[in-house]
UniProtKB/TrEMBL annotation:
Coiled coil: none annotated. PANTHER family: CBS DOMAIN-CONTAINING PROTEIN (PTHR43080:SF2), CBS DOMAIN-CONTAINING PROTEIN CBSX3, MITOCHONDRIAL (PTHR43080). This is Putative cyclic nucleotide-binding protein. SUPFAM superfamilies: cAMP-binding domain-like, CBS-domain pair. One of its GO terms (molecular function) is [protein-PII] uridylyltransferase activity. Residues 21-119 form the Cyclic nucleotide-binding domain. It comes from Magnetofaba australis IT-1. Keywords: CBS domain. InterPro entries: CBS_dom, CBS_dom_sf, cNMP-bd_dom, cNMP-bd_dom_sf, Diverse_CBS-Domain, DUF294_put_nucleoTrafse_sb-bd, GlnD_Uridyltrans_N, RmlC-like_jellyroll. SMART domains: CBS, cNMP. Residues 163-223, 229-287 form the CBS domain.
Amino acid sequence: MEPQMDVELLEIRDFLLGLHPFDLLPANELDNLPAKLEATYVRRDAEVLKPGGENHFLYIIRSGAVETHGASDELLARMGVGEVFGVRAIMAGGRIVNRSAAIEDTLLYRMPREEFERLCGEYQQFRYFFDPLGAQRLREAKAAREDQNDDAVGRMGMPVQSMLKRKVVAIAPNASITEAAQLMSEERVSCLIVQQADGRLEGILTDRDLRSRVLAKGLTGDQIVGDIMTRDPVGLALESTLSDAQLAMMRHNVHHLPVVSEENHCVGVVTASTLTLTQPASAVHLIGELRKSNGPEEMAAAMNKLPEVLVNLVNMGAASSLVGKMITAVSDSVAVRLIELAQERLGPSPIPFCWVVGGSQARHEQTGVSDQDNALLLDDAYDPERHGEYFENLAIYMRDGLEACGYYLCPGDMMATNPEWRQTLSKWKEYFTHWIDEPDRKALMLTSVWFDLRMVWGEATLFAKLREHIVAKSKGNNLFLAYMASNALTHTPPLGFFKNFVLINKGEHKDTLDLKHNGVVPIVDLARVAALASGSESVNTMERLASSKEAGVISTNGVEDLRDAMEFINDVRLRHQARSIQHGAAADNYIPPDELSHFERNHLKDAFSVVKTIQSAIGNRFQVGRFA
């Protein structure tokens, strides 16, 4: 009979078994490994690794916590129970570059370099964990997740050409309306493609056009199609996908999309009903219902389908960025329809105005949980005595209608019902000038919402003037950007103290990860600072990152790493929300670590590490230490 393992060694073995990548080692290796480790205890503030020295051990944290700081004393990593460090020095032949010190009394296990290298050499799965940096591991994890979702992603990426089931039914622009109606009836189609003699697309005629442009206006059937068709209709390229078609329909409020070749020849038409067949509870279908609703009550009933839409998108394997755009398109449609209904009740607006939104709706990044962040941008012709009551009533109607549709009231009262956010163009310019010139604590808080600003309805030139002012005022303003960067770094990824994660320690969501405020928001903040520094007008985070790369504010690798990190964190977040909905619970952003798969747990850590690294780089670029 083999001798039993010492109790203390057995306890170490069980500890290692719960850690990645040690859990990938064969049982016999785990049995032998504890005896090869050396336990060492360090007091709080004691250095473990000192720049300029040598290190020939892999350190495993059994209890306590350790921080690693770079050459300029910037925080590079904060590590807790179960995490390892010292790898970089081993890979560099033992040379220590960064300082690692205990931030509380800490018990460490030290694995000799020779043993570490032997395990890496014999077990590929063990070596894989240490070979790439976190960003590379995350990129490979993303590819692995996409491979797992091939079938689902295939549906969202389905080429629209594969949905074209019949030949194009076309008519000439000089044909009569009567001929067009007869052809639609004979062919049983809801639209006709209007094309020239050489086959080039000129327009589209739909059954809605016949109702609204012919019957409703009392036109005769002998008038020609060219007089009532929609010229230069929104179309799709041959390489477009199902998701492209859905977004185009939602953004342009159309139900028919010609699929057009490079020669501008229509090869088919994708309709809203075609998309509904591929995804019964779709955002396109929901938006159609919203636009036909006759009041907030009908809209609220339609919005009961939104959770199912979210679940379908997640289960189809849609990228989180696409999910955000589709869910936001629903929110935009709610706002637009409510404004139309409000004007039916209150009458047309006495002066030009814009309905603008902030936060995640402005960025096209909404998920299953959203509050209201909105405002009114009024023309400078605004007179409080003559116009004040109209816009106050409009704001109240919008607030109540949005709440009925599931958008809860903003806890900070950043809504158009607050007179502070119902202002003229000149006043809004004053606001932004003050926030930029005097970035105090309140101003920095407000910028996190109002610097993400997008018009949903209204006078486009009015909004363009405000955007121009914001960009011109903030670009190159290094003092303001330094304050913005400092404020951005107050949101830190939840990495380091509780088995790799920092959990909420009290309240309703105790012992969970907040994947919004501690996961996504730090990336959103970094992208906002980078966009303002580069003079970009983009508000979507992915677009902001792309523009910051072009301007050199964030390195190419840094941008790609942040994009991967945001996609992965949001992917985990959306899957959690979909599971909650399917189990009859409300979607939220709080996930217990036990709900995470091994895959998600390990690569969330990589994503958070990426964010911390870029935060450090941004802090150095804008000399954040001077303003913290």
